[in-house]
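Supplementary notes for students who missed Thursday's class. We covered one full example, reproduced here. Read the sequence, then the structure, then the short commentary at the end.
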Amino acid sequence: MMNSIPGPYSVLGPKANMFKFFRRPFTFQRWLHDTYGSIVALGQGSKPSTVFAFGPEMNRQILTNPDFFEVSSAFVKIPQNTVLGDMFYHNLMLMSGQKHRQHRRLMQPAFQHDQIVRYGQDMAMITERLADEWRGRTEIELNAEMKKLTQRIAVKTLFGMQDEHEMDHMGELIYRLTKSILLVTLAPVNIPLTPYHRALGIAGQLNERIRSMIHNKRQHLDSKPDVLAALIRAHDEDGTALTDEELVGHTFSLYVAGHETTANALTWTLFLLIQHPEVYSGVMDELNAVLNGDPPALEQLGRLPLLDGVIKEGLRLMPPASIGTRITAAPSELGGYSLPERTNVFF
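Structure (token representation):
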């Protein structure tokens, strides 16, 4: 097995190259791949600080060996003993082992078939309302409108909000918070006018609002079909349920995972369809034949194979979440090279 992974050298150390990565991540990664191949190390010798892995085979090795490649928050480091840390680290994607299995089990009722049907109805209703706002306009800014759409859908399905103005305000708070995360990571300094200070203020507002919703929903759970209500109702066989801190964290992370990434996927898919008018025409013919102008029902989605293919191809060509991180839990092997324990791996 080989030990020395190829990669760039800097007299300033690996952090200089990581600065290049954060500054221009895709350009820098393409250069790494073109120059050094499918596995690249920052920091030479037997203990590289960070490894970049490229291509489907590397992805397969990393994602099918969770005991060696654990989930990692290497991309973003938030101070833990803060309201912002509580929201960020109570996150299914950052859990592993027994804790991950338990929380996944507790979250499953929120995504059962009957719940998904209700969410689908909300999605169709909100989409039709937004489309009504476009009537009479000759031009829209597509990505901004897709973000507005997915923001409203996420807030409605997660929290059960009905009013568009309330949806937009809640979504705007979460958007401002998520946009500040990188700056918070680089400079978590809690003094007035800093990004971290502003982020703590927004996190405090969100935490207070979501906790208020949790309190209200506990009083009227039977009539609430949204995700938060389903998470409040969920409990394990021994009676274990999610705490308020965990409820806040999970709904926040679900929003972050489902909002901007989905908006970008929709934007790129529509952009690509416009580049291929024959495929666009085929999708419209398929939709008209199956739906007859009505909103789609869940059971009809399986009868739309061209639409399914178009969405998957859009995701393949323009993936909205295109970088992942793991950390080695023990000495591991990747692509024929030895990796020491606690190596950060970007894939």
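Commentary. The chain has a mean pLDDT of 86. The longest strand covers residues 39-42. If anything here is unclear, bring it to office hours.
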